[in-house]
Amino acid sequence: MKVAKRASGVEEAYTEKDQLLDDIIAEIDDFQHAKTLAKDVAAAKALTNEKAGEVVRQLAVERLKRGGPDGNDKPLDSPAKPNKFAKIAQVLAEHKEQELTFRREQWKVEREDRLEAERLRRQETDRFFAVLELLAKK
Fold first, then answer.
1. Which of 2, 106, 128, 129 has its CA 20 to 30 A from that of 87?
2. Dihedral of the CA atoms 33, 43, 112, 123 (nearest 10)?
């Protein structure tokens, strides 16, 4: 039977088995990409938290090092407070900007991935219809 199909040119080159294998491979690739993306997100969050912690530690050390004008170890109240709050506000603004930049990049990558997946699905559909069209002509 297969010999007759080959001789007549009717035998299907791309079988359902091939389609299922391609689908499985695509799902595995998507899963691995999502896993990698999740790792990158976690690493970026850890890095931003670490940087924020470093700044807070640095501010605490500076506060401890500062002493009063008479030589005692009490920190200055009035001049240091506005400066400290300004530094904290600056650090928070930088942190928020970094997070926003990271999220924009993440959304861009996710959008590109969705577009690529859609393009591949369209190609598969077009190939399927081309095979059906060839079969219909024969």
1. 106
2. 0
Domain positions in the chain: 14-137
How far is 23 from 27, CA to CA, in rounded Å? 6
pLDDT digits (tens), the chain, 138 positions: 566 666 666 666 778 888 889 999 999 999 999 999 999 989 988 888 888 888 888 888 888 887 655 555 555 555 555 688 888 888 889 999 999 999 999 999 999 999 999 999 999 999 999 988 888 887
Residue with tokens 């942190």: 95
- Rounded CA separation 84/48 (Å): 20
Residue 75 is given by DSSP the state P
d(Cα 87, Cα 60) in Å, to the nearest integer? 12
Contact 33, 106 (CB under 8 A): no
Any idea which residue has 């859609």 for tokens? Answer: 118
